[in-house]
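Here is the promised in-class demo. Please do not try to memorize the tokens; focus on the logic of going from shape to residues.
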């Protein structure tokens, strides 16, 4: 059985490849985009290292020559010399397996000894040092030093952060399909429209691996044109026909997956209707050169059924003794009659729908006659 779906309206819309660019901001008034650079200079009315874009003018570091940062560094150097340096110095390395030298570690530039100060923070945060029996500072001194040291390390690292290279990230095929589905409510198989994305290390969503060539860009433009015809109707477009054939090797004696229960044979296809409208949906029987249409020679008529998204929208009786006699008389005369019976006009909304063509299963015995059970 050869099945045909006739569509009456084509559609056009532009579909764009979405891209994401980190670190860029748009100008609503001028329509331009610019990258906001990190602030590194000193402007009028600001301190060295101070970012004027912050409302409070928070300091990111000050000169060690008499400034607050330098005063705190000197104060905490004396504090370390009192409680820690007597054990952790270059003359008596402690602990023996992994010595910690606080005598040479700098508090003015903590990044030079960042690994050392991270170890100090881990120990002092749980008050593991100084050891039991040695002089220990007050709780307030512990909290003040660890807070100051952690903040100094964070500020120093923030000034040297390297976020890396910003790379424009185009959509791969899966992301493009999902974007079309979310924006236009169209479930389109873009695998036949766009080439394979490839990938690095098994991933196809890495920006560096998603290269863009003129050929690929042309493919995206072509895909957009094809998808646009599915999204918005064009009242001036000519009617077209989409045809779906069934392989002769597929059995027509059992229910097909996707079709309602109680049906036999046929097929179900996923078709994208370009606009709301009335469509002609019809099926065609296999026609031999000498035998005519197959299936009309049955002793009882069969019911041909058309479904949309699993719901029956059209049915008609086909075959039986009368059709068989008419075909035996003239195959050419009976052909348009049967074709007309297998054609239904159905109102369908725009978008993808599952259209099914099948026959209602006919039981071998009558189901409306009660028969008592036979007992021996």
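The designed amino acids, position by position:
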């Amino acid at each position: 059985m050869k099945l045909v779906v006739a569509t009456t309206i084509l559609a056009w819309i532009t579909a764009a490849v979405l891209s994401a660019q980190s670190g860029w901001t748009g100008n609503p008034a001028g329509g331009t985009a610019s990258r906001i650079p990190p602030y590194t200079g000193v402007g009028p009315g600001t301190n060295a290292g101070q970012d004027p874009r912050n409302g409070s003018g928070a300091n990111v570091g000050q000169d060690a020559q008499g400034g607050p940062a330098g005063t705190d560094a000197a104060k905490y150097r004396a504090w370390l010399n009192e409680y820690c340096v007597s054990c952790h110095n270059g003359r008596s390395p402690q602990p023996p397996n992994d010595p910690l030298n606080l005598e040479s570690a700098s508090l003015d530039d903590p990044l030079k000894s960042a690994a050392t100060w991270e170890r100090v923070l881990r120990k002092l945060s749980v008050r593991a040092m100084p050891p039991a029996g040695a002089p220990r500072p007050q709780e307030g001194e512990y909290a003040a030093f660890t807070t100051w040291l952690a903040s100094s390390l964070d500020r120093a690292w923030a000034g040297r952060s390297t976020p890396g290279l910003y790379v424009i990230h185009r959509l791969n095929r899966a992301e493009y399909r999902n974007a079309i589905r979310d924006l236009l409510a169209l479930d389109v198989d873009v695998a036949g429209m766009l080439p394979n994305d490839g990938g690095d290390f098994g991933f196809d969503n890495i920006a560096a691996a998603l290269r863009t060539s003129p050929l690929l860009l042309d493919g995206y433009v072509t895909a957009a044109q094809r998808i646009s015809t599915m999204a918005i109707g064009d009242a001036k477009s000519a009617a077209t026909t989409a045809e779906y054939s069934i392989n002769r090797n597929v059995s027509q004696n059992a229910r097909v997956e996707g079709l309602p229960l109680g049906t036999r044979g046929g097929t179900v296809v996923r078709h994208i209707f370009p606009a709301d409208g009335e469509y002609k949906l019809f099926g065609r029987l296999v026609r031999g050169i000498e035998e005519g249409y197959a299936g009309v020679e049955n002793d009882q008529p069969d019911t041909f059924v058309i479904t949309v998204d699993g719901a029956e929208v059209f049915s008609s009786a086909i075959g039986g003794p009368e059709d068989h006699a008419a075909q035996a008389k003239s195959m050419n005369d009976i052909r348009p009659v049967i074709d007309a019976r297998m054609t239904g006009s159905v109102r369908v909304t725009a978008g993808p729908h599952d259209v099914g063509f099948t026959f209602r299963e006919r039981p071998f015995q009558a189901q409306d006659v009660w028969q008592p059970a036979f007992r021996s």
